[in-house]
Design a protein that fits this description.
Length: 421
């Protein structure tokens, strides 16, 4: 039997005493570091979540300020004092007149943890203030809103708002483009029947051309204004037209929607055209009877005017005032008896205007008359329009900047851009 010396088995491991303890300590340190990291990460995640929530509350508070500002501009928020209009001029130049929210911090939440402040309103087109000018009317507003949330968070938003949904130059009282395949039909009667004036009824001192026509119709129009037949013969008493010479339409003075038949079709029936805008406002009518029977009628009793789109013929009158705002007629427009329209009338499509009936009628603003097919090749040209006010009554057509301003604004304001600063 062989015996072993057990003592010799452990002599070589005498230097390993305490290794297990060290290993345990190292593992404990690793677990402690991992646990500490987890705790730190959890804490940071919680702080980030709270900060993110606070920032979102500030952002939504700023959005609430933008929405409230638009409500004020649209007249859906009571002005201060009551009855003060939130016009672009008042909003810019007399901030305390239109709303108590102007410049003040307004609570969004009941616990006041979310608030907003409209802290700047400027005219981006005029860096130097023109508020001292009586005729000043800004076309755009740049509005800055700051939203406040918990934990001292804040967000800033900028919004640019246009005063008009649709803006276009008005260079003449009556504008009638023609592709010149046939001559314009125009009859203005004599001095006892019709008056057309480019002098601003609103007293701005501005004067426009009374008639703007294509170059091929210049002589015809000029002869009629002078009291002659279209060929220049049989001259007699002419109508009262101021100024006495027509203006020739050029690319620089023609509204974009009348530059071509293609543009006119887009303006009328396009995806962002006036027909769709009228439908969205509940102001599109397939017949004259439906338009006149509507709650707003042709806008006669609406101080701000209305948009009225009549897809067909329309007789304007009798009645004074008959309507105001923007009136679009795709068929024939007949001016009948006593009537008064304040704003812009667009006779687009059939392109024919006639005067009939006794009495006296007034149109204060501007008129556009264009003849074209609603559907066809993009290369189509305008047909020859008809403008005949030599009917059984007198009429006065005069430029009014105030009436045109109202007509352009009937669609509400346009938001041109919103961004977070």
């Amino acid at each position: 039997m062989i015996s072993q010396n057990t003592t010799a088995l452990f002599k070589s491991r005498t230097n390993e005493q305490g290794a297990a303890l060290i290993t345990a300590l190292l593992l404990s340190l690793l677990l402690l570091a991992a646990g500490g990291t987890l705790i730190l990460t959890t804490t940071m995640t919680g702080l980030t979540a709270r900060d993110s929530t606070a920032e979102m509350q500030a952002y939504y508070a700023a959005e609430a300020g933008v929405a409230r500002t638009l409500e004020v501009l649209r007249g859906n928020v009571e002005s201060n004092p009551s009855g003060t209009r939130a016009s672009f001029t008042n909003v810019l130049c007399s901030k305390t007149l239109w709303s108590a929210t102007s410049g003040n911090i307004v609570n969004v939440s009941t616990d006041a943890s979310s608030r907003f402040q409209v802290y700047s309103i400027t005219d981006p087109d005029n860096l130097v203030s023109k508020c001292g000018q009586a005729t000043y009317k800004p076309d755009r507003l740049r509005i800055l809103v700051r939203g406040y949330g918990p934990r001292n968070s804040d967000k800033e938003m900028e919004i640019v708002v246009n005063r008009y949904t649709l803006d276009y130059p008005v260079k003449a009282v009556v504008t009638a483009p023609n592709g010149c395949a046939n001559p314009l039909t125009i009859d203005l009667g004599d001095s006892n029947v019709t008056t057309t004036s480019g002098t601003d009824l609103s007293g701005s001192g501005t004067s426009l051309a009374a008639y703007a026509v294509s170059n091929c119709d210049y002589n015809i129009t000029n002869n009629v204004i002078d009291g002659c037949d279209t060929d220049g013969s049989n001259c007699g008493n002419g109508p009262n037209v101021t100024p006495g010479d027509p203006m020739v339409l050029t690319p620089s003075n023609t509204p974009s929607f009348l530059e071509s038949v293609y543009q006119a079709r887009l303006f009328l029936d396009g995806p962002e055209g006036m027909k769709l805008a009228a439908i969205n406002q509940g102001r599109y009518f397939s017949t004259e009877a439906l338009a006149k029977a509507s709650a707003a009628g042709l806008g006669a009793t609406n101080p701000d005017g209305v948009l009225t789109f009549v897809d067909g013929d329309l007789t304007l009158g009798p009645g004074s005032p008959t309507g105001q705002g923007t009136l679009i007629v795709t068929g024939k427009l007949t001016l009948n008896g006593n009537f008064q329209f304040n704003g812009v009338i667009m006779v687009l499509g059939t392109g024919e205007v006639y005067r009939s009936g006794a009495g006296h009628g007034d149109i204060f603003g501007a008129i556009y008359v264009a003849k074209f097919a609603r559907v066809g090749p993009d290369t189509d040209i305008f047909g020859a329009p008809v403008f005949n006010t030599d009917g059984g009554g007198s009429s006065n057509i005069q430029y009014s900047s105030a009436a045109i301003d109202m007509a352009k604004a009937v669609g509400g304001h346009t938001i041109k851009g919103v961004r977070e600063l």
